[in-house]
Predict the structure.
Amino acid sequence: MTQRRVLVVEDERTIAESIAARLRAEGFTVEIAADGPSAVAQFHAGQPDLVVLDVMLPGFDGLEVCRRIQTDRPVPVLMLTARDDETDLLVGLAVGADDYLTKPFSMRELAARVHVLLRRVDRAAAPVPPAIRIGDIEISEAERRVRLGGADVHLTPTEFDLLVHLAGRPRTVLPRERLLAEVWGWADGSGTRTVDSHIKALRRKLGADLIRTVHGVGYALDLPA
């Protein structure tokens, strides 16, 4: 089997080499870029299966890198940030990031997140059921495409998987911990802010009334009356 390719974009040499060493030990082929322009160039040249991307970079930042590579082809992006700032997180999700880690982080956790994102890509290639319709929203799992009133809506891979998961269980209240386990593959139940941020993104793109919050429990996708 061909080794999966990962592009690590990080300007701190020690961190970049540590990430690369851990991912190579996990069986990945890894390339490193240290600034925005070289990251985009190496992405186009190497066609990686996943990108580990720091937000703060010379040249132009990781948000711009993410925006540029996602216009070329959808690819899972794990964003690294030095600040646990919700605004930065939401901007990152909006330009196509699928997941994030706040520095400092453990290499074990980073490797686990990479494996989860790639498993999600593999699941997307499996046979899928017909399109799901919810009011003006049409969800095609085969095309991994969402339309609202006939117009395409761009969702990140994680936003799409979360929407499909909720749509497959309409009106069922799903706790955040369950969503983390079943969509993200996180068994420890930590990181509920990640779920909340993705729900906010779906509401912004598809309508504020689509997903209902059950305070203290989780979320449910409501069908039109």
Summary: Residues 116 and 184 are 7 Å apart (CA to CA). The first strand starts at residue 5 and ends at 9. The two ends are 49 Å apart (CA to CA).
